[in-house]
Structure formats: structure tokens, C-alpha cells
Write a structure and sequence with these properties.
This protein has about 240 residues and is α/β, with parallel strands linked by helices. The protein contains eight helices and seven strands.
Length: about 240
């Protein structure tokens, strides 16, 4: 995309990923776009390592851990204020390959104004079984709520059109916020375009996902979204389709 370094920023939320965040940030910087790291109240030496890295980063800091949803909200608001049109998000735990960022940029060129959704190979040998089940579960309910099909609704590797996003005040604090962004974007008529990405799960990676508590929160959100789909989502999508 022409002028990509001026239009696109990279956002990396992090909580206690001191062992991997600098490597992820450094490889992201190498892709040629400004990088914003949100230190979401880390209690390890993440802040010290970022400060000592010498990397050209913008570091936004939450004094206390507020959750990934709030970290994304902070970064999106900052990126908008700086005039960026798109924000590519990826995780700080080492599972995502920053070298795949050009694939998302290329997808933005082909689908301007779309929300680009990274799609993992769920059949890969190193894919945790719990991840595969949770993603299929989420994919099913996403299709019920939006009448759209995506191969991977749980990945955090995405490119967001900042000026078209739903109200950020609707975001909840933790991982379910990313599902809400997909559903609200679909209801708003934003194109959702999947693009293949690589993924790895290092044995020593630090994940803040709480399997039982966060899966419960996602399940509650899915229930609410199904109700909202009937009274708001589907009517809005129908009106949008008729207008088009």
C-alpha cells in the first residue's frame, strides 16, 4: 500500500511478556511501520527491557493491569489521534510472526476499508487442542450472529480500519473484546477479509488467557450477542443491504 508507513501503525499489547516482547517489537519495527506497545500494568521487567532496547517505539503504559480490551482501546484512541488510518495488532508472546505483516498490508490494498483477520491453520501439528475447540465454538456462534463465515474468529493478528470501527466505549476489558469488535463490525457492514498467517506456540511463552474464566466471559458475550443479533444486528444488516 502506497504510503503504508504513514497510514498504518502496529500495536502490540503486552502483560508480563518480558522474555519475548522486545524480539516481537524489533521484528515489527523492521516491517517499516511505526510500532506502539501498550504495557498493560506488567509486574515483571517488561518496562525496563523496553526502555533499554533502543528500539524506536511508542510505549503507552497502564499503571495497573486493565485487560487486553482496554489495552487495545488505549492504543486505538492514540493511533487515531496521531492520524493513522489502520492499525495492525499482534500478540507479544511470540506466537505471531511479524514477518507476516506485509501479507496483511497487501490485503488492505486489495480490500481498502476492510477489517483484515489473520487466519491460523487450525490443523497444524503444534496447535493446542483447546485452541482448536474454542475457535470452532466461536466460529459457529459468529456465523449465527452475523450470517458470515470466518475461518478464525479468535486470532489477535488483525488489521483494523480505525475510522470505521464501532464505538470503542462498547469494548469490554478482556479477550472477549476482540470477538465483539468482529461482530459489531459485521453489523456495521464492514468487510471482513481473512488472510493466512503463521503461528507458533513456544513452550516458554507467557499467556494471560485464563481458560475457564475467559471462556466463561466469551460464552456470556455470545449469549448477549445472539439476543442483540435478533433485535439489532440482523435488522441493521438488512437495512444496510437494501441501501446498497
Amino acid at each position: 500500500m502506497e504510503g503504508a508507513s504513514e497510514n498504518i501503525c502496529i500495536i502490540i499489547p503486552t502483560f508480563n511478556n518480558a522474555g519475548t516482547v522486545c524480539d516481537v517489537a524489533g521484528r515489527s519495527v523492521a516491517q517499516g511501520c511505526p510500532v506502539i506497545v501498550v504495557n498493560d500494568g506488567s509486574t515483571d521487567d517488561t518496562a525496563v527491557r523496553l526502555a533499554a532496547s533502543g528500539l524506536p517505539l511508542t510505549v503507552l503504559t497502564h499503571p495497573h493491569n486493565r485487560g487486553k480490551g482496554m489495552a487495545l482501546r488505549t492504543a486505538f484512541l492514540y493511533a487515531r489521534a496521531q492520524g493513522f488510518r489502520y492499525a495492525i495488532t499482534l500478540d507479544a508472546d511470540g506466537q505471531h510472526f511479524p514477518e507476516d505483516i506485509p501479507a496483511l498490508v497487501a490485503a488492505l490494498t486489495q480490500h481498502p476499508g476492510a477489517l483484515i483477520v489473520g487466519s491460523r491453520n487450525l490443523q497444524a501439528e503444534n496447535m493446542p487442542g483447546g485452541n482448536t475447540f474454542a475457535n470452532r465454538f466461536s466460529n459457529f456462534w459468529f456465523r449465527v450472529q452475523t450470517a458470515r463465515k470466518l475461518p478464525d474468529t479468535q486470532t489477535g493478528y488483525r488489521a483494523y480500519p480505525l475510522d470505521r470501527l464501532p464505538s470503542l466505549r462498547l469494548l469490554t476489558s478482556r479477550y472477549e473484546a476482540e470477538l465483539a469488535l468482529l461482530v459489531f463490525s459485521a453489523w456495521k457492514g464492514i468487510e471482513l477479509a481473512p488472510v493466512a498467517i503463521r503461528v507458533c506456540y513456544p513452550e516458554d511463552r507467557v499467556s494471560s488467557f485464563r481458560p475457564f474464566r475467559d471462556f466463561f466471559r466469551i460464552s456470556v458475550l455470545n449469549t448477549l450477542l445472539c439476543v442483540l443479533a435478533l433485535v439489532y444486528g440482523y435488522p441493521r444488516m438488512l437495512i444496510h443491504k437494501l441501501i446498497r
